[in-house]
């Protein structure tokens, strides 16, 4: 790898042994992927994926202490993924013992480390850091050092920023030294599409289901999606919310770090089919294909006919747009069913900043009356508890379905179950 004079000086220890090791880490990381140079991070803020004080992460805490003691702090303020715990979310006495003593016993200690390293705000914990309310929204072309897969794919695709699918801690190393290796999705060539995906459905496809289908098909490749603009129209708040959930499914059910939607996403608007490689493969998604994908999801509950004990919505975190629209949908469906409150304990999760904005509206009180709980928790971290894994939990998040025992249903099916009960 060719380093400039400043990078070479850091590697040789001009800024201390610890910073030299950070630079060496990033150089070695880049060389593994064939990078021949380093480029500066240009975004205003960074984002870290590791947000949970898991007892088993002792080496991480030791590393953090070494960075702090050496004064090797993040050059950017940063946000972090959601916290793993929230007292408002239903949990049993034994579940709480496991959470607090066997799993996330180092949470307070770790959050203190994050604040010393450069956490943007005390409650800057969310997987949707790019929301306007949160303020960590990169601009087109900016170079990032992020790891959270759902945030990386959104930043690359919807915002046109540039970031590879890094691993946890690598995101922090980049922020500390101020550079990331130049390869993959940071390059023009790496952002070209390997697939053309043709959407031929008779109605607007479910975001999480379509993302799952495309992710499982193209894996880590870049898809260029044709025909989705018919259903999205323009890149307004509704479309951004759709693409948030769609992208998270492509990234978790596959390993997509970037997608282009013809007529919608910024690079597809400016470059069009020039983004598609000459040897690109074609994948057609119609109603039958989506049904095939849906029917293929395994149900890993011990009792497949069990009544759901909990519903999680918001993985990734819900937008303000979603909180408002879901409040209206839940109210209407409860009215139709003749019920005052939801019949399954239900948690809507969103960023703390989004929830503060939501509470300024009358929708917050209306949603509370339905019995739904709002939280800034990470549903995935909640489900990592072995006692949570054994619970019949439902969700419309394909990310949560992929990583946990939660069972996937479409939004309409979730709405029916939480407001009217019964099988779908």
Automatic annotation (TrEMBL):
Superkingdom: Bacteria
Record has Lyase as a keyword: yes
Alphabetically ordered keywords of this record: Iron, Lyase
Domain Phosphomevalonate dehydratase large subunit-like: 1-408
The keyword Lyase is annotated on this UniProt entry: yes
InterPro entries associated with the record: PMDh-L-like_dom
Protein name: Aconitase X catalytic domain-containing protein
Species whose genome carries this gene: Bariatricus massiliensis
Lineage: Bacteria, Bacillati, Bacillota, Clostridia, Lachnospirales
């Amino acid at each position: 790898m060719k380093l400039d004079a400043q990078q070479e000086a850091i590697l040789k220890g001009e800024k201390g042994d610890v910073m030299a090791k950070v630079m060496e880490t990033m150089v070695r990381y880049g060389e593994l992927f064939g990078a021949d140079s380093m480029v500066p991070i240009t975004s205003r803020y960074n984002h870290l994926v590791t947000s949970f004080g898991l007892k088993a992460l002792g080496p991480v805490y030791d590393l953090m202490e070494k960075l702090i003691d050496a004064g090797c702090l993040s050059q950017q303020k940063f946000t972090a993924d959601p916290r793993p715990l929230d007292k408002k979310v239903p949990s049993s006495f034994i579940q709480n013992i496991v959470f607090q003593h066997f799993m996330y016993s180092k949470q307070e200690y770790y959050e203190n480390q994050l604040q010393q390293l450069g956490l943007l705000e005390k409650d800057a914990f969310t997987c949707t850091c790019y929301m306007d309310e949160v303020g960590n929204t990169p601009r087109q072309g900016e170079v990032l050092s992020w790891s959270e897969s759902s945030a990386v794919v959104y930043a690359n695709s919807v915002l046109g920023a540039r970031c590879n699918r890094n691993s946890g801690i690598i995101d922090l190393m980049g922020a500390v030294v101020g550079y990331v290796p130049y390869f993959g999705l940071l390059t023009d060539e790496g952002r070209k599409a390997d697939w053309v995906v043709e959407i031929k459905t008779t109605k607007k496809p479910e975001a999480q289901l379509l993302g799952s289908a495309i992710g499982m098909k193209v894996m880590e490749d870049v898809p260029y999606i044709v025909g989705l603009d018919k259903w999205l129209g323009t890149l307004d708040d509704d479309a951004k919310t759709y693409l948030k959930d769609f992208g998270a499914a492509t990234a978790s059910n596959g390993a997509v770090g970037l997608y282009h939607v013809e007529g919608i996403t910024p690079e597809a608007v400016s470059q069009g089919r020039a983004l598609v490689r000459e040897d690109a493969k074609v994948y057609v998604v119609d109603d039958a294909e989506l049904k095939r994908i849906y029917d293929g999801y395994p149900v890993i509950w011990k009792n497949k006919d069990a009544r759901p004990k909990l519903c999680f919505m918001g993985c990734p975190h819900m937008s303000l747009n979603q909180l408002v629209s879901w409040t209206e949908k839940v109210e209407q469906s409860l009215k139709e069913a003749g019920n005052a409150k939801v019949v399954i304990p239900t948690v809507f999760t969103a960023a703390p900043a989004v929830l503060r904005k939501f509470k300024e509206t009358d929708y917050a009180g209306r949603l509370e009356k339905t019995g739904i709980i709002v939280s800034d928790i990470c549903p995935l971290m909640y489900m990592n508890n072995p006692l949570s894994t054994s619970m019949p939990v439902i969700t419309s998040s394909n990310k949560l379905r992929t990583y946990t025992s939660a069972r996937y249903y479409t939004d309409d099916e979730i709405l029916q179950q939480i407001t009217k009960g019964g099988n779908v």
